[in-house]
Write a structure and sequence with these properties.
Distance between the termini: 36 Å
Number of strands: 7
Structural class: alpha+beta
Helix content: 40-55%
């Protein structure tokens, strides 16, 4: 029994009585409906409810993932192969980018959490200083994170403010460069001692404003 077609639809069902949670007011139930057709005429149905404020999943993101990754991976394959095509053996969902490269649901979730933490932290820091991203003169990204991160991609997914795109500067191995500067020029030790006096440490964990910023930044 081979899969011959994947059809998608969206429904929105208004609630007679809206309800509230700690994060949102729910006035309707949204759902993405998935319809699988096979060469035997059998049809299967499934659903994927988007809960962007909780998981970051939107209806558009779900539909895009199915159309661009999941559907191409399962079309023409037998139903019995389904688990091999969509799981990595440890229960993680898999999106096949190519036959050799795949992206798991865990990969997406880890990126989602990292993106939200960075974006949320930036938002809180800007608010604490009373400035906007337009006021920032430059953004230096150090280490492997800054060396291999695509500034355009980071801005596109909302990890970094769009206003900072032209101001981003990858620094590479800043720790090694800093150690070399100290070893080669003793005057840099005096400059190093002055840096803590100009800095203010801000603990983000446990802050209500960071929790709100983190949640708001979960969506792509």
């Amino acid at each position: 029994m081979k899969i011959t077609q994947v059809r998608l639809g969206r429904i929105s069902t208004p609630l007679r009585v809206p309800f509230k949670t700690a994060l949102r007011t729910v006035n309707s139930v949204e759902d993405v409906i998935v319809e699988l057709h096979t060469d035997t005429g059998a049809v299967g149905y499934g659903e994927a409810p988007p809960t962007g404020v909780i998981t970051g999943d939107t209806a558009g993101a779900i539909i895009g993932a199915i159309q661009d990754h999941i559907a191409p991976a399962i079309l023409g394959h037998d139903i019995d192969e389904f688990e091999d095509l969509t799981e990595d053996g440890r229960g993680n969902g898999v999106f096949h980018l190519t036959k050799a490269v795949s992206l798991t649901a865990r990969d997406v979730r880890n990126l989602q959490l990292a993106k939200a933490a960075v974006a949320g932290g930036i938002r809180v820091l800007l608010e604490q200083r009373g400035v906007t991203a337009d006021d920032i003169a430059s953004v230096e990204l150090a280490g492997g994170f800054g060396n291999y991160l695509s500034p355009e991609s980071a801005v596109r997914i909302g990890m970094l403010p769009r206003a900072c795109l032209s101001k981003i500067k990858p620094l590479g191995n800043a720790a090694l460069a800093g150690a070399s500067m100290l070893a080669l020029d003793g005057e840099n030790w005096r400059k190093l001692a002055e840096i803590p006096e100009k800095c203010r440490y801000l603990e983000l964990s446990g802050r209500d404003d960071f929790s709100r910023a983190f949640t708001d930044s979960l969506t792509f």
